[in-house]
Amino acid sequence: MTNLSSLSFYLPELFLIGIILLSIIIELIPGCRKYNYFVVLAGLISVAIMLSWSSTESVSIFMGMSVSDPFAIFFKWIFVIATFYIVLISRADNSLDKRLSGEFNILLLIVMFGLFLMVTANNLIMVYLSIEMVSIASYILAGMLKNDLKSNEASLKYVIFGAFASGLMLYGFSWLYGLSGSTDLHEISAALSGHMDQPFVIYMAILLVLVGIGYKISMVPFHYWTPDVYEGAPTPVTAYLSVAPKAAGIALLIRFFSSTFTTDISTTVSNIDWTTLVAVLSAITMTVGNLLALQQTNIKRLLAFSSIAHAGYMLMVIPVISVDARAAVMIYAVPYLFMNLGLFFMAIAIHNQTSSFEISKWKGLGSRAPLMAGIMVVLLLSLTGLPPTGGFIGKVYLFSVLIKFQQFFWLAVIGVINSVISLFYYFRIVKTMYFSSADDETVFKIHPLLYWSIISCVVPVLLLGIYWSPLINFVQHSISMF
Fold first, then answer.
1. How many domains does the chain have?
2. Which range marks the domain in which residue 339 is found?
3. Is residue 215 part of a domain?
4. Is 441 a member of any domain?
5. What pLDDT was estimated at residue 268?
6. Is position 444 within any domain?
7. Is residue 423 part of a domain?
8. What is the structure's pLDDT at 299?
9. What residues of the chain score a pLDDT lower than 70?
């Protein structure tokens, strides 16, 4: 499809570009800067409206560089919701410099645009450009607290690890281009089918690509940046990094591997066994994440290792090359979005009160703020994967795929063991809230934006644990392309 005719399938992105440019113009006019916050929120609502009007056809756009399909639209909804939440609560975070709120919102929108490109990329060039757009803006966001040494350290480490991973991924792309003579994912797949005598070259390309994508989703052993960046970055940025780029990375991994290294829905290209490699990385990722989380006393570092473990859970079904496996990942991504954001919003609320992210500061929260403490318990139950929560339903679908297709039973066992391990560090927070006396008996105060955002996060987590049919229907429609 030509560039001009592709524009009708690109309306959400065009609206997003318009909002970014409008926000930049508003920031240049001193008297209008106070309206930037509301313009961005209204712009995100307009993008959501455009997204709801998007065509559900599966079409190749911009001369094969990108695609427009229900699979991409599903993840775009996750990005819109996550971005709206982060912009909304950014005013309630005391650590953010309000003078930089305009720049913060603009960078967040640029990251969101990059995420949109990631989930629609159908070409090596587009894959690389989208990842770099997300990464570069994220580096700046991580260092937004210019006078905070930890924020500076987070940004620097993020840049160093990101540049290293990006370079290795680009090297892997060069191998794929050398083998196929094309940057189109489907043409590469067709070319790789004729290179059955060169499995080493294909394995090397797969490993190098996994470095780049694995870095975005905090997959072990490309996870070293995660705890330090999550701890040092402003908490709204940390909350965003824990859900949106991770979801985009999983979506990109699914599209890239199903288009490039899979000949049909159930066969790997040239009989290259990349599925076992991903299964092993999944097991290591969830195990390392959970074991290291046990030692954490800082809530941001704990949630950082928790996010690494959850990346392992989502990777668990990728080796099962089937439509059901991809659906299970998508089902899990929705409750994960709400439960993770809810926990980070609670961390912001506690930090506003105590100026600390230490779990010990949560003492006595059960008596000082019973509703918020109760919500915390629900969110932690969901992250653990216990009923009646959306996290439980998500994990049921993940494990059911391994059982249904009778593949990687050992991975299911490791997943269950890791879920039990996670119970210890999640419920250490519950123990602190309910069974430890508060050091400070002052009334717990919470900003109204944070209060209602946390409420709005726990509601879908509970609803999805009781009634999840609409989500299943939406996901089934979104994977029709496969």
1. 1
2. 273-482
3. no
4. yes
5. 60
6. yes
7. yes
8. 92
9. 1, 194-198, 264-271, 439-442, 481-482
